[in-house]
Structures are given as structure tokens and as C-alpha cells.
Amino acid sequence: MDGWSWPRNRETCQSQGGDLVSMETEEEWNFMNDAIQRRNTKSFENKWSIGLTKEKKGGNWTWVHGRPLTICKWGQGEPSGEHDAAFIYKRSRNGERGVFGSGRTIWKNYDAYICEISKGKSSFLLLLLLLPCHKTIGKRGKLITTEISPFQKIDLVAVISGGAEVTRGLHRNITLNASLSYDPEVAHADQQRMKFTWHYGKVTGIPFSKQAEAKAKADKDFITAVHESAIQYYGKASGEQISLNTKAMSVNQTYIVKLVVTKDIRISTVYQVIHLIEGDPPEIYQRLEIYFCSKISSYKWVLYQQFKRNTSFTWQRKHNLRLITSTPLNSSDIVIKGGSLAGGNKYRLALFVTITDGFRGMNAYEFSTAIPPTGGNCSITPPSGISLKTDFSLSCSHWKSGNNPLSYQFQYRLKNDLYNVLYRGVNNNINTSWIPPGNNAYNFVVKVIATVTDNFGISASPVSSAVQIKPYQNVSTDFITNLLLAKDSLFQKSIEIGNLREAALIANSVMLSVSQETSMNLQERYKVMNYILEKVSPLGAKTVSDLLHKSSAIGSALQVLEKVPHQSLNISLFSISSMTSLLWSIAQKQLVADTPLTTQSAENLASCLNSVLKAAAVTASEDSKSSFQQQGKLLVKISMKALEKVADSLLALTVPDEIMIPFTAGQLSMTLGRFSLQRLSGLEIKAGKGRFILPSKSQLLLSGVNKTSFVDVQMLSISFNPYTWDGTKERVASDVVTLKLKNNKRELKTSSSLHL
């Protein structure tokens, strides 16, 4: 059997006197969510078909017995406008548990399904899991069929605060904390039924003494491998947090702590090596919470990779760390560039800190790099076609991963340099005719980038496919009306149901075809662009994909229009301002899987604001007697504030002393950076044709600078200034250059003695 579609699953339930399950209350959903969290399916996506479907007329989602959907449990980006059947996830690819997802009734999947069966006054719940064997449990009128799952439970994660190796002082007790340990199968902070057992002892034997000799010769870098044969345990304790009395310990001795975390049949173990030294060395914990931070005089980062030799493991220092980081190795933060570390390896990252009193502390964390999806390919067919006419098939196949389900993203960049996403979800094959034409300067070639990502957000290297897409020829008024303007057009239907993705794809394809159509007069083009602006701008955006869809459509319309009508300008700017707020919210979450699209959304919004600034500045330079002049000035101020929030969002994705971010959007250039205080002295910032040099340390005066942990630098250069300076009404073309310095609360700071 190739698989069971949603209708087939429903038929199976109906054949047993029931139907696919309905969940009309929070209580019913809570019960169902709790039930599926304790089960797995044969489907790698761990999802069950449920009795929720979309009406053909009206497009409303209702339960199979006709009652409306009264609880909102849709997952991020759901439901898709083209889908008509629903299922419930154990955990979606975004990590959400028990959320609803959408699909097509015609799809064939090995999905599990949940039946609700009534027997007289009793209600029965039947979870059918498409597994080779199952067992039935009957209890008080409830019949639950559950699987004998062939899948193992996910391992517990045991964590000791401080990392794999630390230094501690002799004059204070040592606190051992396991609160960061968790069970991946439940909520991250839920530690119910988890037991913590501590074993502590000291290191003895030859293996460690030999390592100590080697360490003494290797510029005092601590790096200790754990061998049970060389550990002499002398104590045991239990609890999430315990304390060790250092009075019974010896200075310059190496101690070992072993944490054993247990739950059900699972056991997870982690070690911490403790070097006990004189005095009070700085204590470093996860997220670099460093005690005595005001006294720190230097930082040093060191990276080791684990190798297996014969039957034992050794750590080797990676001497190319400076080449694979975007931060200095003597900074308080470190960023290792993506793609620099090979998948499937184990690393240890150590930080050595020296304080002004001369004491030295260290912290080391071990981490493993995941193996991304491998072995597959992605393609687009046919190799050439016409926008809005040719159906293109984009597919990815034969990708393998141990962390299913996989998700797929197909993306392209418009010829006006705006980004957009064709699709982002679990389907590995899509068909569409809504890919905009390419740039005629490059023979209309469009590059489609496919990215395959596993369940934990680890992506394979993007796969690029080139396709030639020419604009639709002889775009007539009737064609535009049928596709865009008519009440029953595809575009209008997408607007009515709030399908932002579909509306943006149609809009971009139409606009870029119209912009190259010589048979249409200027008035007809303006009508199309204004209509798109007025229809797309009010649509709500909730996800980073929505941001790309909406900003690309609005940005394309604004670029085509040489002069934006006042009403359209107001609508556009209101929508753009709303999107910058969403961008800031998404950036603060710092989700690794969303970072590329977040950055692209920021560039799209900057391009939109460049167009708005240009249009608003033209309005502001009109006759002073016109009421539009004040409106234009106000729009310029609002646009600049929105642009500042875009910069704040990009900086939220960075750490102090990371390489500065330069980007250009139209006539606008920005350079952004986040810096520790000591690196501001003499800092040179360039953007466009402008340049700033901050004063030397002795001259640098920042108000309130001692109260911030870093300073954000935002430089803007825009080469359009239409204001008139005299009575000739001739416009002056010059660059406008601004520099903003902000503290860690996003408050503006002032500096003296700036050099241009």
C-alpha cells in the first residue's frame, strides 16, 4: 500500500462506527496532546490525521460533524491557503507540541490517525498508528489502542553548570547545579520525575599526571580527559543542587564530579573536571556569566577537537580558530562562522580569563556538531519558461538524516534585489507558475536556492538551480483584470482568505512582467502598482516568511512607481512600520534556523524604506503652501525611525566585537556594529561615500558609557536629498550621513571630538 490519504483514514474510522476525532474545547485538546506526547508513529513526522477540514464554499475550517473550529491551535505558518485537511503534530519542526498542521486530502502519507467512536452513552478514543503490532488497553469505558513502538525514547540531557572543566578557589564552597538538565520529550523546563545523583572524587593515577606534565608545557592550557580508571570517588549526594566543602580538599589537586540523571528507563551521565587553586579565581558559567567581571584584564579562547586513537580519545588544539571566527579571540564573546566545523565531531571550547589581581579562571564546554541532511539533490524543471504561464516543478529527493522530519525551503531573489520565498514547509515537491521573470541583462536567468533542514534546524549546504524565466509577453488589460483586478481573480481570492504567500507570489510575477511590458501605458502601470499596494499592505504578517512575502511585494511596487500617490504612501509606510516591529520581535528570539531569513527581511525593509524616503522627500520639497509638504516631512521622520528599528534588529543578532555588517539597499547604505567599550577608541566606520572616525580613548566622551556593557554603532548614508536651499527651486543632490551610538538599552549616547 502506497499510503493512506486523509479520506482513507476517515473511511477507516467510519467503518468502525466513528469518525476522525474532533477537539472543540481546551480540555479535549489538552487530553489529546497529553496522549500523543507519550506515543510515536511509524511516520517520521509523528503526526495524526484529525477530523478538521476546510469547506469548499467559504473556506472556513470546521470539524467533520459540522461544528466550527473554536480553539486556535494552528502551528507557526499554518494553515496554508491551498490545503484542505488537518492533522495534529506531536512536535512540529518549529518545536511546537500538539499544534495543528494542514495538508491536502489527495496526498498519500503513512500518517497515523485518531478515531472518535461512540458506543451508546460511552465515548471511545482509538489511536491507530499504522504499526505492525499493537496492544489494546480497556479501562472504564475508554478504549485506547496504542503502539508497541519500534522507536527508542530520546536520551536525557545532563548538564552541570560551568561546563566540562572549571577552576575554583580554595576559600569558598563549590556549588554544583544540574538545573539546566532536561528531558527533550517534554517541555524544556519540566524536570518532573528526573532524579539527580552526584558522585565526586579526585584524580589519581598515571594518565592524569602525564597530561599534567603536557599541560605545563602547553602555555598552561587546561585540557583533561576523563578516565574512570583514574578516579577515586569518595562521596555521593542527590538533588538538583549540592555544595562541596573545600576545607576537605587540597590545593592544586584535580577533582572529578559525575552527575547521573535518571528517568523511567533512561540514564544520562556527564562529568565536570575541577582544578582547585589558591585565592578566588573568576567563576565562569553558561552564557558567560562571569563573577568579578569589573576586574577582568584579558580573555583567551581555545578550541579543541576530539580524535580517537586506538581505544582511547585525545583532544587536539585547533590552531586555525582565529580564521574561522568573526570575533577576536581576546573578546568576551565568540562567534564561529557557519560551515567552519565538520559535522559529526566533538569539540571543547575553553575560555581563560585573567583578572587584575593576577588570578586566572577557566571554563570549558563540550559540544557535538550535528550531521546535516546528506546524499540528496534538488532541481527545477523545465529549464526555461515564461512567468505566469509555465508550470515549474521544484523538487528535492533522496535526502537522508537521523533527525526527521525534514523541511524544505525554495527561495529566489528578484531582479530588483529583493528576497522572497517560494515555499517553506515539509513538502519536498512543489509546482508553481508564479516565479517572476529574471533580469534581461543576465538572459532572464533566475537562481532558485533550495535548503533542506532537519528537525533540529540543522541545514545542508544550499543547492542552487538556474532556470531561464522570461516575462509574459503582451500583457493585456484583460489579462491583468482576470489575474489581478477581478473579484473572482486568483489574487483577489488570496487577499480575501489572507493567503499572503500566494498573493505576494502573484503580485511580484505580475509587477515584474508589467515593468518590462512596453505596450502598457504609464497610467495602466500605475493602476496595477497602486492596486497591489492597497491590497497587500493591510494583510497581516506573523512569521519571518510572511515578512519576506509582504516586504518583497510592497518593495517591488514602490520601486516601479516613480511617484507614489499620497494615500498609497501612507498605507505603505504604516504597513512597513508594523513589519519592522515584527522584525524586532523575531530578531530578539535569535532562532538559528530563522537567522538567514531575518537578515534578508531586514534588507527588504531597508529597500522599502529607501523608496519611501525618496517619495516622502519629494513630497516634502513641494510648494510650502501645499498641505503635503508637512505630511512629507512627517513621513521622512517616521521612515527614519523605522529604519533605526531595522538596524536594531540586525544588531540583536550579533555579539560585541563581531565583524561589522555593511549592506546597501538602492541609494541607501548602512554599516552596523556592536562593540565593547575598549574597542571604540579610534574606530573607523564607513558607509557609502561617508566616513566617521571615533576619537582616541583619551578623547572619547560618551555620556553614561560606564553603565553599558557594549555600544551599538549605526551609520547611514543616503545619496538622495531633494531639498532646495534657495529661491531658485533647484534641488541640491548631496549625501546625507548620520551616525548613532546606543547603549545596551537602545538609548542614544553622545560623543565629542568626532572626525569625518
From TrEMBL:
GO annotation, biological process: calcium ion transport
GO CC field: plasma membrane
Region forming the signal peptide: none
Source superkingdom: Eukaryota
Domain REJ stretches: 1-724
Localization: Membrane
Domain C-type lectin, first and last residues per copy: 1-109
Molecular function per GO: monoatomic cation channel activity
Keywords: Membrane, Repeat, Transmembrane, Transmembrane helix
Principal cellular location given in the protein's record: membrane
Pfam families associated with the record: Lectin_C (PF00059), REJ (PF02010)
InterPro entries: C-type_lectin-like, C-type_lectin-like/link_sf, CTDL_fold, PKD/REJ-like, REJ_dom
UniProt entry tagged with the keyword Membrane: yes
Keyword Repeat attributed: yes
Family according to the record: Belongs to the polycystin family.
Name used for this protein in its record: C-type lectin domain-containing protein
Organism: Pocillopora meandrina
